[in-house]
Write the C-alpha cells for this entry.
Amino acid sequence: MHVLILCEYGTVNGGERSLLATLAQRPADIRVTVLAPDQSRLAKTLLEQNVPHVPFSSQDASGRRLPTETIVDALLPVVERLAPDVVHANSLSMGRITGILSRRIAAPCTAHLRDILRLSGAAVRSLNTNARLVAVSSAVRDYHVAQGLDAERTRVVYNGIDCETWRPRSTTGALRRELNLEPDTILAVSIGQVGPRKGLDLLVESAIENAAAAPSLHYLVLGERYSTKAESIAFEASLHARLHQSAIADRFRWLGYRDDVCNVLCEADLVIHAARQEPFGRVLLEAAACGAAIVATRVGGTPEMLMDHESALLVETNDVAGLAAGVRRLAHDADMRVQLGLAARRTIRSRFDIRDRGPELFNLWRETAQPSVCGAPVEHQPPSPSQ
C-alpha cells in the first residue's frame, strides 16, 4: 500500500517529529512518499532517514500561503503521477486541502488533527470530506466534534515516541560547561515555538517571581519564532524587554533550535511547559521519556499523558503564582524530581511507546484503503490516564 503524506512546512517541530517517529516503524507492506518544501530542515531529515520525498510547497516565493484552489490544482497531477492508495495530511490545515482534493481523486484521504483552534463552517465541511480524521488526543477530538466534525470518522491515535532513543542518560556537566555555568546551577528547560500559545510570557513572569527564592535557578529556552506576523514579532520583543527590566536577564539562555534535545533534557534538572494550549505536547513525551521532572499547565491533552503529583506537577494555565510555586518546589526538592521523573518514564514506556502507537496509524490507513470500510463508523475509546 502506498501512502502519500502532505506536509505544509519544512520545519521539524512536534508534528513533523511525531510523523518521522511513526514512519521509522513502517512495516514492509506500507510504502510512503512525503510531499514537503524542498531545501528545508524536513527535506534534509527525510533524506537522512531514507524516506522518499517529493518537493512541494503551499506557499509562494515570498512565503505567503497560496490560494486553496491553487494548491489543490497543483496537487492533482502529483497525485495522479504517484498513484497512492491513501493521501494523508499531516496537519489540520492540510486536512482542509485533502478534504477538497478528495472530491477530485480516486484515493481516499485522511488528516491529522494536531491543533485546538476555532474552525469556520467551511473548514468543518472540508475536513469532514476526508474518509478518516486522526486526533492526537481526546481533548482535540472532543473540541472539534463540538464544532461539527463527524464523530464517527474521528479517531484518537496518540503520538508515540521511541523510548530507546529518548531515555535517561547520566549527567556529564557538558551543557553547563558550554554555557559557562557553575556545576551546582539548577537548570530549567522550556522547549517550543516562541509564541503566545506556548506561554513563554508566563514562564518569564514566574521566573521573576522566583528570583529571590531560587537564586541558583537558570532557564534555557529552546525554540524559534516561525511566525512573521506583527503580533508574534512584538510578543518575542516583549519577552526580552520584560527580562531586561528585571534583575534576572542573565539567568536566561535563548538557545534557538537544537538537534541535541535529548542531551539537553538529560542535563537539565526540570522542564517547564507553560502552554496556554497543548493538543498533546511532543516535548512532554520527549521530556517524560528522558525521565525529566516536569511542571506543566493542565491544558488540552496534557492530563491524558501525565497525572498531577504522580508523573508531573500540573498547574492551571495563566496562573503565574501557581507555576512559580511548582517550579520553586522542584528546584528545592531533588528527591521529588527523581520520583516524578521515574514515574513519567514508566508512564511513557507503558502507554506511548512508538512500537505500540505506530501500528494504530498504519492500521487506520489500511482500513481507509479498503472501500468496504471507508466511511464506516469508527469506535472511539476514551483514554485511561490511570493505566
Summary: The first strand starts at residue 2 and ends at 6.
